[in-house]
Every structure is written in C-alpha cells, then in structure tokens.
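Entry 14: structure prediction run for CENP-V/GFA domain-containing protein. Input pasted below.
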Amino acid sequence: MATSTRTVRATCLCAAAAHDISLPAFAFPLQGIFCHCDSDRHSTGCMSLGIAVLPPEYELPSAWISKLQSTVFSQRLKHYFCPICGTMMLVHLAHDNGESGGGAHWDVCTGALEQLDGVVEFDCHELLSDTRDGGFSDFLQRVDGKTIARWAGEPGGEQLPQYWRSAPLSSTTAKTPTSSSASREERLHAYCRCRGVEFWISRPNSQSTQGITSPWPDVLHPYHSPSTPDDDENPTWWLRANNTKYLAGTCACDSCRLATGQEHITWAFVPTPNISLDAAGSVPFSRTFGTLRSYRSSEGVTRHFCGSCGATVFWDGDERPLLVDVAVGVLDAREGSRAEGWLEWWTGRLSFREDALGRARGLTEGVEEGMGAFGRHLAGAGRGGERDEG
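Run finished. Output tokens:
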C-alpha cells in the first residue's frame, strides 16, 4: 500500500521562492523549535528563530535552493533567504565533516509556511541564556495548553524559570534618565549578524519630536476599529516613560511574517534623527548604507534587510519619513534582548492578530496570553510596560 503524503506550501514575501513540501502524512506534526541565540536574533532581526525540523531523509530540490541566497552561519549550518525580499526560509545542518550525510537535515522557517495549525507543534525554547532576560520566551509560555520547555542551552540541559534574568535589571542598565535632556550621548548599538548593516540609536531628545508626525500604529489602535483615535491625545505616541524610552510592540501581520520567515517580529519605533551610522553620532541616518537592501512590499511601504546575511532591519512607511520601525533582534543592549533600558513594551495587543488567527490560532492565542501575563508581571514589579485590560 502506498504511503499517503501531505503537502505544505512555503513561500517568501515576493513569492519568487515559493515551493511545495511533500512529506509522508505520518511525519506531521513537525517538531517546532524557537532558538534564542545571539546569532539567530541578529541574523533574522527577530527575537528568535522559529524552525520546523524536516525528516532527515527529505531531499531538498536543487531548483528551490537555486532561488535562494545562502549565508554561512557556522561550520555546520547555513541559512537560506530570498535575495529579492529578504525572507529567511531554510536552515541546513550538515554532517560533522561538512558534508551531507548522517545527522544532516533541513529545517524550514515556520513563518514561511502557509499553514501552521496541524502542521507544526512547538515544544521548546532553546539557548535562552544568550538573551540575558528570557527574550520572547516570556511572551510565549503555552500553545494549546501545552507548556513550552525553556532550555538555557541545548534541549535536555538546564531549564530556566519564567521571567528569568541573568542579573537584576537595575545592575545591567544605566540609571533611567529623568528627562529627555539626560544621557544624550549614550547610544545603543545595532547590527545584523555579518555587520554589513550597523548603526547606533541615541536616547530620546528634542529631535525625537521635532517636525515628526505619524498616524497611530495598529499595535495601539487597530486599523479595523470603527472608532477614530484622537490624534491630540498622544501626538508623540512613539515616546514613553517621560520621553526617555521608545515604544516597542509585536506584529503578526502576514507581510511581516512572510518578510522575515518568522511567526512574529518585534519592532521599536525610533525617529530617524536619533539614528546615526557611527558611534559618535556624527554620521546621520541614511536609507542606503552598508549591505542594506530594500524591497517595496506594498504601496507606501519599504522593507530593508541585509543583502549579505538576510536580517530584517527596518520597516519604512512613506507617510512617516522621520519615524522608522527598527527590528528589535538587531539591538545589542547589555541588559538583554528586550532592551528594557531603552524600550517600553506594549503588551495590550498583538498587532494584526486578525491575520494570524486563521493560520495559527493556537500560537496566536498563546502569545496573547503570554503578553498579558508579562504585562501584569511588569506592573507587579513596578517597571515600565503598558497593557490594555480591555
């Protein structure tokens, strides 16, 4: 009797590297893993790399590989991304001697899959010790009632408790400035894994509001909402904590998912006058520097990624030229991957959750539950972070 098969489609944002993956039906659900190592964060721009492990006997067609650009991740690992739109799509683990063989296999980035429910079952976060603060794992504790393991290193070793930190936040950050005029010279370093894209962010200052206007983002006010927000209520919504931090939020829209190859991306909203291309702050922000490559993903929207390693770097909207979304995964804050000394996290809404529910309801609801719990944890600890109980 012939073995029944099941086909799942993987695609990049521009669809140039779309491909159908056919596997034996018994191979599903595929094992899903979130890797939080420093290298994966800086190579994706996201706070973790979400992959589904393909069976070791699966042979990837050369026609698919030929459409992708590879980047050497380590002696045994290669990442593959679309050179047109930047979508991270595949990871290949080679045999110990660098040749395909025993132990070698392919992983597909889960955000590139058209369907997740019933296709992938996430079972763990790994290499959390690299984050120094738990990273995105604190936003995702359970999926469909199943607790996701939290490994400090590789699976099978030490597990870390919820809301773990390698050191108290107060000991890893400079004292939070009490006004936007303080600590102007302090800068946050940001870079992709290959460092072909590298820049610095200053603390909010007088330039963070000068001449800058922007409509409300979906993370604060859903685009589909019938009510209209009062623009005078908070005209500089991107600044938080008495104008000393930038707003950060999490997006699940289809475009961001397909642009990154990841389930979610976390964005920090940063004015371009606060971004410089050198540590001294003397070289102003530009949309063309280093290995930065651009893709016009929709009318009025340009996405920027590293053309060498594939990391997502910026979301750029024509309607707000002086304010960009910076991918949090490229930030290098000494306090940890959430950069809480610089960012205030909005946990009241998973942006564009409506896009995700039909494809990944279990994961989406798990993230919403985790974000809500994280917001309550921050409030209980007396730290920044905002939530909407409505």
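Notes: The helical segments are 38-44, 62-65, 169-172, 254-260, 353-381. Will compare against the previous run tomorrow.
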